[in-house]
Every structure is written in structure tokens, then in C-alpha cells.
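Entry:
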Amino acid sequence: NRDLQSAAARVLEYRATYGATRADLFPQISAGASAARTKTTFGSLVIPTFDQFAVTANLQWELDFFGRIRRSTEAAQFDWAGRDDDRRALLLSLVGDVSTAYLELRELDEDLVISDQTMISRQQSLKLARDRFAQGVISELDVRQFEAEVGVAAARVAQYTRLRAQKENQISLLLGQVPGDIHRGMKLSDVVLAVTPPDSVRSSLLVRRPDVLRAQHDWSAALARVGVAEASRLPRVIITGQYGRQSTGLDSLFISNAAIYTIQAGISVPIFTGGKLVDQQAAARARAEQARLHYEQTLLSALRETSDALAGVRLSRDEVAAQETQVRALTRALELAQRRYESGITSYFDLLDVERQLFAAQLVMTQTQRQYLASVVQLYKALGGSWDSR
């Protein structure tokens, strides 16, 4: 998935940014070389043209007495962790989207099988009706009704075939691949029996959700930047130095008396900035307060999503059981209605009514099974990827 790969690249970007910020804790050493030809005059005094060659090593180091760089490094580290939380959140969302789409695909598979079986059954009933019409047992109206019901089932077969192809293309896009066939596993009814979600979970599981961790890391980064703003109002101590060789000729550049060096320690104290540093510190504290409130709101949202998911799992599981009972009852009722119709005890309309009810109940059952499994997926996402407390 390209979005997931992009999120992973963003994590690498912020990890590199953290490394660059952390590097300010150490001395910055560079090397330089220069060559120059100089001619200077002072009034009537003319200094002969001379060459100058120099090779130096340069040092600059800010001594972080008051923690400005350390706080900046902490903020960058929390930013890096937050982007990794974003990557995990995207991965979790992607897993949920793929799972939900796959369950919808399996529902369409089941609907297609049900519609196809219903169409075959109605075609057989139509053949029987035509035979009975030829014998003068039933009217042409009954035959036309049978033909219409075959058309309804055939239309459903075409509809579910189209929707299934579109769902396969959607899953292929989520997986980052060209459209194609999607491998199938167990049927929905088998998956319903295979999953065993809990009826309750510990609230401590929510702290591992990626969005909760991201909000926590954002809050920590904001607090660290408060420290940066506070340290910016304090003195800064910087050491600079230079050591190397300098001479008027390359052949004499490394003789003993060609050495040059400079070392300097400086301190910078902000005295008057027009209130800029004070306002920057106040802004940093306000951003930290916003981050804290966002963290608390994220936790509350996580609690609500988990409660909704648990309720959805419990209630949809009951719906599945009730719907399966209805389908079993209607299946038996259809068998009895077919026997009574073939024996001439009941009319075609009694048989058609039971057949319609069974067809609708079977489609609702697959929908209910898919909704139950979708609620399990929602619970998985709400708990940050698992309900296992280990």
C-alpha cells in the first residue's frame, strides 16, 4: 500500500531530523584551506605582493548549561515517535479496511450463491408450472408469476456478480496491487464460529492505541518546547576555536613557527527583546495545554469507540443466532409448502410467499453475519490491534 510506504518514509524523515537536532549537543568541527595573493598600499608605502596559504581546523560548541538543546532534542524525539504512531495508526486502519472489504466480498459471494440457488429452484418450479399449465391444472397467470420470480433471482445474480468484481478491485487497491482475483478463505458462517471476541476488556488496553500514543507524544513534545522557550531567556555560552598552519609558501606551511590558533569563549545574555521571548514562552505553554486537552479528548473517544464496539459485538451476535433460527424454520416451511403445492393442496401463491420469505431471510442472514464480523474488526481497531492483554 503506497500510503503505508509514504508513512514509513515520513518516520525515517523525522528520525533523521532527531539525529540532526541531537548533533547540536556535540562540538562542531570543520576543516578549511585557503590560498591567497595579496598586494596592499598605504599612501606612498607599497607592500610587496605576497602569497598566503593556510590550513585550519575550526571548532564551535555551545555548552548547554540550561538545557535548551536537550529540550529541543527531546521534542524532536517525541515528534519522531509520533510519526511512528501515525504509521501504526495507518497500518491499523488499513488492516481494518481490508478486513471489512474482504468480509463484504464474502457476503457478496454468499449472496450470489443464494441467488443462484434460488434462481435454479425457481426455474425448476417454472418448468413444473408449465407442465401443469399444459395439463390444464393451472392458469397462464400462475405461469407468468413463476417467470417473473425467475427474473427477480436472475437480476440479483447479475447485480451481485457486478458488485463482487468491484469489491475485488477495491481490495486490490488497498493492497497496492493491480485489480485481480482475491483469494478466498472460510465462509462467513465458519468465520463466525471461529472468532471469539471478549465481552469486556480492561481500559488499560486503550493506552497502546496509536492515536492515544500519538497524542501523548505530542503533549510530551509540547512540554519539551516549553523548556526550550524558557532556556532561550537564559544565557548562552559558546566556545569557538581555530588551529592550523599559515605561511607565505607551501614549502614552509608545516614548519614549527607556522602554527596559528585561536580559542574564544563567549556568553550571550538576552536583555531586551520587546517581550518577544516572554510571548514565545507563553505561546509554548498554551500549545502544551492544547496538547494535554487533545490527549484527554483522544482517550475519551477511545473509550467511547471501545464501548460501542463491545456493544456491537454482543448485540450482533444475538442477531446472528436469531436470523439463523428464522432461516432454518423457513427452509423447513418451504419443503412442506412444495409438497403441498405438488399435491394440489395449496395454491401457488402460498408457495411463492414462503419462497420469498426464505430468500429474503437468507440474504439478511449473510448481512447479519458480516455485520457481526465487522463489529469484531471494529473492536480490534478500537483496542489498538488486539484484545489480548499480554
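The chain is about 65% helix and 15% strand.
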